[in-house]
User: What shape does this take?
Amino acid sequence: MMTGVLLFLITLCVIPLDGYADDFSREREAMVRTQIRARGIRDRATIDAMRSVPRHLYVHNVQRRNAYQDRPLPIGFGQTISQPFIVAYMTEIIEPKPEHRVLEIGTGSGYQAAVLAEIIDEVYTIEIIQQLGERAREVLDAEYDNVHVKIADGYYGWEEHAPFDAIVVTAAAEYIPPPLVEQLREGGRMIIPVGSAFQTQQLMLVTKEEDGHVSTRSLMPVRFVPFERADE
Assistant: This one.
């Protein structure tokens, strides 16, 4: 009997303690129910992606207990991971399809790219802060083979892989960067916060029609970190 008890204790000791800490399935389901669906997100692919991606893996260990709360969280270098609803909203609004090629500007923690990768065949994401880009690449590479991370100034987009069916910008720009508009496919959509970093911004939907005509529409007031440039 004692041998059996010792064997049981040894077995417990070799199980990684963070294996328990990483089981946030109930918190994630509650997030989807109360923050995503309850606030009007209806796209099934977006809901399924938000349910699938373990958000706690995209924040620092000290923030994991807060990972599924309805708020942005700091990820270092003056940057944040957006609140879950905003990630879901920006995903739904670009009307993602599996065959799409999507560009994200502002990789940050990699969470938005992961949500997109659950739906879309090819995700290209750019981060200007090298340490964040390298950290996100490591996390994303472990889970996805359809996400491509580049450390560069996102203002210029990723021309060699353009045109993109959709572009998601996760930092507030003073104006909509012309290179991103140029790299948007006809019929494509771009979602971008526009305005000063020190004021409430407007989340804008940019649509390029089949004839090349570009239109913009203000969706809601938001607060994002500023769009950083390499020469600033």
Summary: The chain has one domain: 2-222. The chain has a mean pLDDT of 91. Residues 72 and 83 are 4 Å apart (CA to CA).
